[in-house]
# Entry
Amino acid sequence: MRYTDFTPHDLVLLLQGLGVSVALFAATTVIGLVIGLAWALLRYYRVPLLAPFAALLAELLKNSPVLVQLFLVFFGLPVLLETDLTPVQAALITLSGNTAAFIYVIAVSAIESVGRDQVETARVFGLSRWQTLRRVVAPQAAAFGFGPLAGLLINQLQVTSLISVIGVVDLTKVGAILNLRTLKPFIVWTVIGLLYYLMARLIAAACARAEARLRAHRQWKGL
Amino acid sequence: MIHIQGACKRFGSNTILDGIDLRIAPGEVVSILGPSGSGKSTLIRCINGLEKLDGGSISVDGHRVDDPKQLQLARRCSGTVFQLFNLYPHMTALQNVTLAPIEVLKMPRAQAEQEARALLASVGLGERADLYPAQLSGGQRQRVGICRALAMNPRYLLLDEVTSALDPEMTAEVLAILGKLARGGTTMLFVTHEIAFAREISDRIVFLDGGRLVADLPAAQFFASDGGLAQPRIAQFLSKMNKS
# Structure
């Protein structure tokens, strides 16, 4: 057997890489959702100082390359704070922040898509600002924001491949390793690409199901 | 008692309400007539606190609308029905009606739903309680809107051109229900262009023009030739409405 041949162990490697990518994607999505929605809440309640700060932070994060942010966190932050960051920690921080920035933008526009008449009506009937958000605004905003959210998540999945650059052994890094050893780039990268494709399709399908449920009240099913 | 004293409202340099004085006592049905832009809807929006007054004061059962602490109590006294229904599109008719009783009055869900179903049945929508607004006709939607307001057991019903978005047949559906409510003793402030209906159900008729209260007369007197009709602006308005 030549060292350039594929071995059964490569499959284990691929699955491990896939696991790391999926885990990081899931974790940063959850953290990003929590932070992004919290920023949107700051804006909804017009919290002084914090609301503009969140808006500025989101602006900075969504208008600079993720790779630059990753380098800043991985190489810059340890110098500034005089600590060590593992590649996985740096990846978690960077991707969570980036996802949060885009979730914030989607949440804000989704909240604003709900008509002023809806808010006024709820308020006239005595609902508090929080009750209005929870029962009237949020369900309608969620239905509006789910399309953009699905697009964002699929994009963020692809973005996770950047973290291979700082040494996280994700699916892309596994691809690079296999490629170096086997010298069969066409096969390796096709397989890696297909795996990303399959994950993206899964995310899209899950989002479509959730969106259909949120839109159950509309007779019109879209174009 | 809804007590409006010298109410003024301006949007920029545009004066919408120009010193309105009006009292509505429990049990009264008061219709507000007037040309478009005369401030009728704005007056309703000031009573339920959706617009801030620039002068004067409004209180509902003693709770001042302009005081943020009392606004909630004032709103609890009145129920509003909107021109464009403003139903919550993501909720069924039943959920539209039960939302405020459950969230605001903390009524148990089962009780709220039972009362809501009874209300919906009383306006002929018993079968449609579980449909979404998009699945209802305009007249049906507005009947849900009326039930939603009634579910809070308001002392005053504020009706803001509730039939303006409906065709004559649906208008008749909705007016029939309002007529029943009026005869049943519900206090109503009724902004409308349905002159004949206003004449039939109202105790008093108020006429607004350019943000001023031109007349506030008992219904019979408003339409009498030596009463409201003696005023040229009212006579002109009514003759135009009758022609159309």
Notes: The mean pLDDT of chain A is 92. The longest helix of chain A spans residues 8-44. The radius of gyration of chain A is 21 Å.
